[in-house]
Amino acid sequence: MSYIELRNVSKTIKKNPVLKNVTLELEQHKIYGIQGVNGSGKTMLLRAISGLMRTEGKIRIQGRDPVTKGQPLDIGVMIELPGFLREFTGKENLELLALIQKGITEQDIVWALRSVGLDETDNRRYGKYSLGMKQRLGIAQAILGVPQLILLDEPTNAIDAGGVQQIKELVTDLKKQGSTLILTSHDRMFLEDLADEVITMEGGRVICRQ
Ligand SMILES: Nc1ncnc2c1ncn2[C@@H]1O[C@H](COP(=O)(O)OP(=O)(O)OP(=O)(O)O)[C@@H](O)[C@H]1O
């Protein structure tokens, strides 16, 4: 059994087919990159895998449907910027999330912040963060507690070159720690450097894996 299995997954939003018969099998402990032009369906694919969106067809993660209730799957997700509280610091925002996520320690929070290049002693409120800092905090919440599966939509589009290098090292480290990662990006070089496999999407379909 594959770690992640999609069979004929399709989704139509307002008469617009955004995923068309996607069939994919993905293995555990790998880094997958998803590339494609604007509107090709990369974000929709991540939404489908995360269980945030219902689809036609079948999706299984370790044999389980990500949408059905029951024991939650251990997934960290950053799709667009999460709704952090503007009046809280980055660390306070993560502490708030830790209240609803089992087993997250202070040490986990500090590790996640430092891993994305944020300083846990920085007293600035989230509302004052630059776009790049917001994106870094978005990644920090997705990697909190090192989930088994981590889905990152365009994790580096607002991050400077030094930050991109840091995110590459982080992603490699997360794989070493046992996570499976699926990342989307417009930056083909970024994905080719990092991913075990690059999946190309076009018009809601997977057209190439290499
Ligand atoms: N809320 C929505 N309602 C209707 N259609 C949508 C919605 N969000 C996205 N779409 C459509 O779904 C299709 C796939 O969009 P998706 O965001 O997955 O593309 P993408 O490959 O991630 O693009 P980008 O590179 O711009 O992020 C597009 O045709 C888009 O117009």
Automatic annotation (TrEMBL):
List the PROSITE patterns: ABC_TRANSPORTER_1, ABC_TRANSPORTER_2
Superkingdom assignment: Bacteria
Query: Mind telling me which Pfam families this protein's record contains?
Result: ABC_tran (PF00005)
Residue ranges that the Swiss-Prot or TrEMBL entry lists as coiled coil: none
Q: Which keywords describe this protein according to UniProt?
A: ATP-binding, Nucleotide-binding, Transport
Quote the InterPro entries the UniProt record gives.
AAA+_ATPase, ABC_transporter-like_ATP-bd, ABC_transporter-like_CS, P-loop_NTPase
- Residue ranges of every copy of the ABC transporter domain listed in the record: 4-207
> What GO terms are given for molecular function?
ATP binding; ATP hydrolysis activity
Q: Which SUPFAM superfamilies match?
A: P-loop containing nucleoside triphosphate hydrolases
Task: Name the protein family.
Answer: Belongs to the ABC transporter superfamily.
Protein name, as recorded: ABC transporter ATP-binding protein
Please name the source species.
Zhenpiania hominis
